[in-house]
């Protein structure tokens, strides 16, 4: 846009010159609150920190080349059984599923059709 066109547009819109000093004030960050004041204010308003929960289970990480994810929705009892079985044998969840499938296939082969 040419200077002449810009001037015409400013006249038509009756724009005031831009106050850059005011923009700098708006962009300035507010002063930091004193240490602990934010926590006190938050608790006073009903926002409480979450309690620290001790870890209930050890974290399980793949130990081999497993790289395909399989998400399942299970009953809580099933997950508890799986955790117990995995922990008792020192396996991860993937190993537990693999051993369970092997045991199922073996049982099916020996006893005909498994339930």
Itemize the secondary structure elements and their pairings.
Blueprint (H helix, E strand, L loop, with lengths): L2 H11 L6 H8 L9 H8 L31 H14 L3 H18 L5
Q: Helical residue percent?
A: 40-55%
The N- to C-terminal Cα distance equals 79 Å
Task: Tell me, briefly, the overall form.
Answer: elongated
Identify low-pLDDT runs.
Answer: none
Helix- and strand-based class? Answer: mainly alpha
Overall pLDDT, averaged? 80
How much of the residues is beta strand, in percent?
under 5%
Number of helices: 5
Number of strands: 0
Explain what the structure shows.
By secondary structure, the chain is mostly helical. It has helices at about 5-15, 20-25, 35-45, 75-90, 95-110.
Summarize the structure.
This protein has 115 residues and is mainly alpha-helical. Helices cover 51% and strands 0% of the residues.
């Amino acid at each position: 846009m040419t200077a002449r066109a810009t001037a015409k547009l400013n006249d038509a819109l009756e724009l005031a010159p831009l106050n850059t000093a005011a923009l700098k004030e708006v962009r300035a960050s507010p002063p930091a609150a004193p240490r602990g004041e934010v926590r006190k204010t938050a608790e006073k308003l009903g926002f409480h920190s979450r309690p620290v929960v001790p870890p209930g289970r050890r974290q399980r990480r793949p130990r081999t080349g497993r790289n395909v994810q399989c998400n399942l929705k299970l009953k809580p009892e099933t997950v508890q059984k799986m955790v117990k079985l995995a922990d008792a044998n020192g396996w991860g969840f993937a190993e537990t599923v693999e051993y369970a499938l092997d045991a199922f296939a073996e049982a099916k082969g020996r006893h005909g059709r498994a339930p």
